[in-house]
Amino acid sequence: MEEDSKLRRALRWLRDHRVAVLAVAVSAVPLVARLAPWFPSEEVLSALRILLGA
What we know:
Blueprint: H1 6-16, H2 18-35, H3 41-52
């Protein structure tokens, strides 16, 4: 059987852990917004909330 590529394994891991990855992203957005005031944090947070179903 052919071995999975690194990209396929990474995508499978991301799919399996998507809630944790999105939770980390929600936590990191305010930090990025403090470091880069031009960062569109409200738009990013609203998109992440939609993806999380919150």
